[in-house]
Amino acid sequence: MRLRLYFRKPYPTAFSIERLFDQLTTVFRERGVTVERLELPYYNNTPGNLRRNNQWVRSQVQAAANEPLINHITGDVNSVIFSLRSPTVITIHDCNPLLRYPKYHPRYWFYRWLIFEWPARRAAAVTVISEKTRRELLDLTNCPENNLHVIPNFVDPAFTYQAKSFNPHYPTILQIGVKENKNLGRLARALRDIPCRLEIVGQPSPTDMQLLRDHGIDFHYATGLTDQEVRQRYADCDLLAFVSTYEGFGLPILEAQVTGRPVLTSDLSPHREVAGREGAVLVDPYDAGAIRAGLQHLLTDTAYRQDLIFNGRANAARYAIGTIAQQYLDLYASLS
After folding, report:
1. What pTM did the predictor assign?
2. What is the pLDDT of residues 60-71, one digit of tens each?
3. Rounded distance, CA 244 to CA 180, Å?
4. What is the rounded end-to-end Cα distance, in angstroms, of the chain?
5. C-alpha 124 chain-centroid distance
6. Which of 11, 130, 133, 321 is the most exposed place for a label (fewest CB within 10 A)?
7. Rounded to an integer, what distance in angstroms lies between the CA atom of residue 207 and that of residue 214?
8. Is 190 helix (H, G, I), strand (E, B) or coil?
């Protein structure tokens, strides 16, 4: 099998798509697939750049016209499908652009038709990373439902189980991310008067910083961490608090579960599906009192906490890279 992966022009601070598919590429090659990686020369965010990217893709297609292959557009740049001839898979990671703009805004229609709907209609198959993304795509567009395939993200195999004694008296709580949807403000309110240290990956906004101080939270934040330093944060913490209000997938849940840390997360989709049955404490992320109650249950009930760790590790095993890679390979084989 020959496979061509098309990537967006790299952004300096956003590279999760590239990391995901570069790691999958290693497994594809180990399983006998010939993989070619192509990066677009322009950001795909204006009509002019969209046209230039399609012109570039057409030049690449002409160079490989006699080679039978599968194309896969890995994310964000689905509009280049209009210049591809071989069977093409597109991956949609989330529907944020359609949620960001009101329907009267020109950018909404640019994204809806040129990034989502028309490419999805043309594709041989569309993959989405979660059931939530699938439902959002169907709610927001007229993409064909029978062509959507849920293939989740995988846990980076660099994350491994790290034994640690739980500190119920002064636990270290890990918070990944500081954007508004990460819900740091409500977590701060929930932690008031609970002895703990809050370890934050990312720099909180001035408003959240002041809220943390006002509630007397012992907190520390760090930015620009290496992958190894992020993994060390998981190993050093006692639990993960991931009570975000919106996610396309929710990979930190699995990263904590693999490491062997109990997880407190939102009773929303996709959080609850990713966390698995009885693999995390599920709470209402819009209610600081519910977040606090869930956290106190986790801190005070040793048996419950151990069950969370056991169930979480079993759940995360379903997201091994080899398992997810095979789902893509099976899809490619059905199209070739």
Report:
1. 0.89
2. 876 555 556 899
3. 9
4. 8
5. 23
6. 11
7. 10
8. helix
